[in-house]
Amino acid sequence: MLRLIGNIIWFVLGGFFMGLAWWFYGLIAFISIIGIPWGRACFVLGKFMFWPFGREAVDRRMLTGKEDIGTGCLGVIGNVIWFVVAGVWLAIGHIFWALALFITIIGIPFGVQHVKLAGIALFPIGKSVVLSDVAQATRNARRG
User: How many domains does the chain have?
Assistant: First the structure.
């Protein structure tokens, strides 16, 4: 129930606009054809921007224990291209919302979430969105 309430408040306090921004960049990427892999990531992360509570974006290498095209050398190149083309602008959007939310007492936790998402916006290639329980279980399995 708390996740639902958090997601509804989040949606109103910037999640809706940032989700649309991610989907906008996804559409641009799909139109360019060469950007289809980035576009797919934009739509997955855009959905995550709408409703982030109860989910986490984790490194796919940590999740699967294997390296794939997005977590290897091509993923690094993809992240560099992304950073220049769209990552900086999406991160600035998240920082804007974070600063606006930090002004209010109730908005501080949501502002912190926007700062975390700004980091993901800079380098999203090689990330997967999973339920928080799955992410925690994966972290515990890696430690033990």
Answer: 1
The CA-atom distances, in angstroms, between 13 and each of 1, 7, 16, 26 are 18, 10, 8, 22
Nearest to 15 by CA among 87, 101, 89: 101
Structural domain for 41, as ranges: 2-135
15 phi/psi in degrees, rounded to 5: -60, -40
pLDDT at 105 over 90: no
Write out pLDDT tens, residues 45-92: 999 999 888 898 888 888 887 887 777 888 889 899 999 999 999 999
Tell whether 79 is covered by a domain: yes
Give the C-alpha distances (Å, rounded to integers) separating 105 from 12, 102, 110, 112, 140. Answer: 16, 7, 10, 12, 33
Q: Is residue 141 part of a domain?
A: no
Residues 40, 126: Cα–Cα separation, whole Å: 12
Q: pTM of the prediction?
A: 0.84
Measured between alpha carbons, how far is 111 from 131 in angstroms, rounded to an integer?
Answer: 21
Residue 13 pLDDT class (50, 70, 90 cuts)? confident
